[in-house]
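Recap from last week: sequence in, structure out.
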Amino acid sequence: MPSSTSPDQGDDLEACVLRFSDLDLKDTSLINPSSSIKAELDVSTKKKYSFAKKKAFALFVKTKELPAPPSEYKEKWWKCCQQLFTDQTSIHRHVATQHADEIYRETASVLKQLTVTSSTSKTLKSADKRNPFKEDLTHNHEVSAWLPDISCFSPDELLSGHSNGEGEVLLYYCYCDLEDPDWICAWQTALCQHLHLTGKVRIATEGINGTVGGSKLATRLYVEVMLSCPLFKDYLCKDDFKTSKGGACCFPELRVGVFAEIVPMGISPSRISYKKPGEFHKEVEKFLSQANQEESDTILLDCRNFYESKIGRFQGCLAPDIRKFSYFPSYVDENLELFKEKRVLMYCTGGIRCERGSAYLKAKGVCKEVFQLKGGIHKYLEEFPDGFYKGKLFVFDERYALSFNSDIVSECSYCGAPWDQYKLCSTPQCRQLVLTCPACQGQGFTACCVTCQDKGSRQAASPAQSSFKEECECTARRLRAPRELLQQGRLPASPGPRTVSIDAEYSCNCVSRRSRVGLAVPAARSHSWVHLQPQ
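Predicted structure tokens:
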């Protein structure tokens, strides 16, 4: 059971947190990291580690809370991994068995934060200075003191459009120093629950990154609270919040947590050169007007994942075939020659990944210039819905995509017909997205690959308990950092429909399905096509 007991104070605490000051939050090589770390600690330090783990566990469970129905005698339930838990013992057992790695990372984060807090406390004492807002938090540590007054609104007003998609979804991020991310996590959880918002909020000592959905009244109140908060008011402005049609129905639950970074990459952001949507539009126009774009000194770089750029992208862009943004540094390292003496125009959904990506690319010292689209594709499409971005804008919620124009740039994975509406793979264990048109769905082609299709058939015949995993075999076979093929020093041709490597990526899965019916299969990165005859 999580405990609120405080650890010992004084020099022992400082010694403990300093021991963890260089802990690698991304180290997954340990089979049982908790045991490995604790084995080296003395009794006093073990107490501090135990406290941090209990705190991390309690905070994680707190983010899964839901108000119980009025008919229930209990005040709250919990929802996690699409499962509902009605008692504390069951949610604790679930978290302990299914989320051990996340608890470990958050435990390390808590210990690191103790280091920051200890150092900050000493600095403030020596300088004899106080932060008024920090002082207020000390006196009003209850998060309820920092929630907006909604007594003048009826429940119907706050829930208007809550479940029918007539509400709003907010997307924002902010880089700023947060001395107590755990308190911010508790506050954000309470704030979102107070306003009946769902979504994801990621908090770290470096800032906050959020996507939340609810009624238009609720999102307006949320923005007002964020802009008036002393921690963020000097960094955020109204334009930093990107909005789109949606609501709380776009997310299965509310997830708020403390992490090492607000976007996982392992690179600190530095000063960025921005291009506003109008400026970026002119740069793209100039780039596309060139007779030979492949020999241009400009690269229009999409730093999103392959399944995002697959359904929508800027004309003439280079879209790396990566499946996670954390692989972007490896992609850059593998293709440094590609960026040598080039002007790079980067873009992503809302801008936050470009902050990291451009910082990494600049640090390599090979580019002439690096710019990013301020506000991301989201802001660009608000201003230029019929501009140079073609297709849909992928979003990480249950809508999957936003449509700003009628262009379809992707195709059905099975028959090749124009299609850009993602669905989840029909096999319960798989979380991959698949493009399959209505005609192919009618024939039963609803999985991401042959392996998943076969698994689904076996499970239908013999139902068993599902065990979720992150990715399917066909996706795991994709190269982590594909190398672009340069021909005579020129850039690779801008992609039409995204091609895949038969040997290294889909192997015998999706390709073999196509080969059975004699369909055209994209070849490797040379962007030519190979026709496979039925066997």
